[in-house]
């Protein structure tokens, strides 16, 4: 069957191609309702889909944004992406997601792929190697970064901060208020995204006059349950730890599992708190006290800021999303 074109729709409706285009793009309110209904009826009848690529070339845009992330399987990242997609869908924008690897060569391939698709803007949910930051600065595309600043200055860049460092600070403060004094921190390797969350832990101890004991700090691995399991196994060897701040809920889930196997009671013997408030945290044993970073809202804010820049030329800015403690049974 021959593919239906805009020209075919116009001929059968008895109007010009320009009129069909205006109706599809909803840009001319002076076209009669009868004509609109006739054209849209034919569009539906023939299942006509406008050529967005050609449309984008004519307008020098693609109605598409790119999202660069480090691990789409991370529930918190998934929440951010859901928030981005929700706003983009409401604004008739497409989203291309690139789940990049740590290797800078693969990372550059993904960036070049987005460039080839003429995306109108890019949202970064991960850090970039300095070499690839330079490439990004040269593509003249609006950029939003989440929870981090790039090492080099890029003029057309905004940031949405989910308060992850403050979340760790609040988590540590909560344990201190609950009577904990020997508080450990379990997080990923310092080279990974958001490894700076530990600064919230350090600052909270300092503000409360508690000396930081480096033997209570475990920073290896990634943002996953295995890091929590290995960290708890390494730290709980008779040091008298009474509280654990975890860099995210996935790590906390591993900590809870290891403590259970060691027959260490939570929260009676040790209090445990996580960060992110991912859905599974409420179903852990015991249900995990955590700090909600409002990932879905972070995604909404990223998309709204970027769309305002693309469509209305509103300068990019910095936006802070407040975090919130969610009390359950592990503290």
Automatic annotation (TrEMBL):
GO molecular function, one term: transcription cis-regulatory region binding
Domain HTH lacI-type: start-end pairs: 4-59
InterPro entries assigned: HTH_LacI, LacI/GalR-like_sensor, Lambda_DNA-bd_dom_sf, Peripla_BP_I
UniProt keyword annotations, A-Z: DNA-binding, Transcription, Transcription regulation
Keyword Transcription regulation: yes
Tagged with keyword Transcription regulation: yes
SMART domains from the UniProt entry: HTH_LACI
SUPFAM superfamilies (UniProt xref): lambda repressor-like DNA-binding domains, Periplasmic binding protein-like I
Protein name: HTH lacI-type domain-containing protein
Organism: Hungatella hathewayi WAL-18680
């Amino acid at each position: 069957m021959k593919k239906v074109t805009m020209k075919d729709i116009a001929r059968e409706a008895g109007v010009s191609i320009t009129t069909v285009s205006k109706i599809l793009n909803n840009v001319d309110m002076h076209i009669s309702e009868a004509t609109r209904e006739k054209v849209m009826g034919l569009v539906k009848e023939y299942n006509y889909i406008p050529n967005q690529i050609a449309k984008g070339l004519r307008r020098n845009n693609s109605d598409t944004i790119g999202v660069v992330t480090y691990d789409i399987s991370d529930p918190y990242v998934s929440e951010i992406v859901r928030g981005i997609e929700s706003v983009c869908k409401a604004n008739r924008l497409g989203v291309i997601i690139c789940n990049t690897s740590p290797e800078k060569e693969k990372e550059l391939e993904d960036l070049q792929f987005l460039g080839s698709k003429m995306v109108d803007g890019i949202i970064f949910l991960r850090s970039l190697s300095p070499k690839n930051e330079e490439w990004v600065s040269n593509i003249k595309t609006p950029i939003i970064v989440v929870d981090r600043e790039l090492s080099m200055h890029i003029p057309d860049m905004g940031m949405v901060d989910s308060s992850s460092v403050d979340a760790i600070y609040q988590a540590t403060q909560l344990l201190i208020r609950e009577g904990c004094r020997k508080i450990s921190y379990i997080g990923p390797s310092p080279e990974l995204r958001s490894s700076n969350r530990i600064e919230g832990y350090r600052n909270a101890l300092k503000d409360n006059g508690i000396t930081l004991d480096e033997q209570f700090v475990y920073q290896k691995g990634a943002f996953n349950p295995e890091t929590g399991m290995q960290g708890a196994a390494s730290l709980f060897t008779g040091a008298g730890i009474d509280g654990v701040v975890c860099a995210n809920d996935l790590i906390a889930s591993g900590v809870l599992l290891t403590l259970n196997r060691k027959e260490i009671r939570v929260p009676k013997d040790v209090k445990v708190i996580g960060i992110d408030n991912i859905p599974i945290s409420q179903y852990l044993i015991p249900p995990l006290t955590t700090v909600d970073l409002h990932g879905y809202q972070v995604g909404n804010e990223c998309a709204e800021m970027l769309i305002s820049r693309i469509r209305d030329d509103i300068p990019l800015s910095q936006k802070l999303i407040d975090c919130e403690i969610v009390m359950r049974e592990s503290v």
